[in-house]
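[Discussion] Sanity-checking designs against the backbone

I'm trying to build intuition for which residues belong where. Below is a structure token string of 210 positions. I'd appreciate it if someone posts a full sequence so I can compare it with mine line by line.
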């Protein structure tokens, strides 16, 4: 005989039920950030199944979905040839800048390009974009965030989202880290939690019955 859910479990389940005001933000799941890419994130391809589950659920609930992407010029300041820390990656209109194979990108989704000029970098999806205004215009108050990479663009996006007044739920199973320094992933998760984000997993989300 199965046990009845505790009040604490019921409260957690209710908190993870999607509702109007929720939005999904998929951060930089692009070919160059996958294993074998120009700036491959270890196991970066493994975020796709979890994100696709979330995308299907948000699509069915008719809730906003945002895909962010690095969209760099060839002489971007983050590239080593210009004195930056990274190899060339996600150059606009190249295969490496395309979204990951198998990632579902619904026709009505919002695509936000960032770091589009040579002189300025942007880890956060809110940096030099109109994402905050767009989300507020769609009535969004709570954001579910996943993607690449945990310790850079996801972390920066989550911090800025909280700073903009959004409630943030971080999808732990739908992100992976670069880990330039061992343990960067764990430190990033702690930083997000300390900033006020809640860490959850995609399999706990729930919407209206199909």
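Best answer:
Here's mine. Compare freely.
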């Amino acid at each position: 005989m199965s046990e009845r859910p505790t009040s604490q479990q019921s409260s957690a389940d209710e908190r993870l039920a999607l509702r109007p005001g929720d939005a999904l933000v998929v951060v930089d799941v692009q070919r160059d950030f996958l294993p074998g890419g120009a700036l491959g994130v270890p196991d970066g391809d493994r975020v796709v199944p979890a994100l696709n589950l979330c995308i299907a659920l948000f699509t069915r609930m008719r809730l906003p979905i945002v895909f962010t992407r690095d969209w760099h010029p060839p002489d971007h300041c983050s590239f080593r040839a210009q004195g930056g820390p990274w190899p060339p990656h996600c150059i606009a209109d190249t295969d490496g800048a395309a979204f990951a194979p198998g990632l579902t990108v619904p026709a009505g989704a919002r695509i936000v390009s960032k770091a589009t000029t040579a002189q300025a970098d942007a880890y956060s999806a809110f940096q030099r974009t109109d994402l905050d205004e767009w989300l507020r215009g769609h009535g969004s108050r709570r954001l579910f965030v996943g993607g690449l990479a945990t310790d850079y663009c996801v972390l920066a996006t989550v911090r800025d989202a909280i700073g903009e007044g959004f409630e943030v739920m971080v999808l732990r199973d739908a992100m992976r880290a670069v880990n330039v320094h061992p343990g960067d992933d764990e430190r990033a998760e702690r930083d997000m939690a300390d900033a006020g984000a809640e860490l959850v997993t995609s399999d706990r989300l729930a919407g209206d019955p199909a």
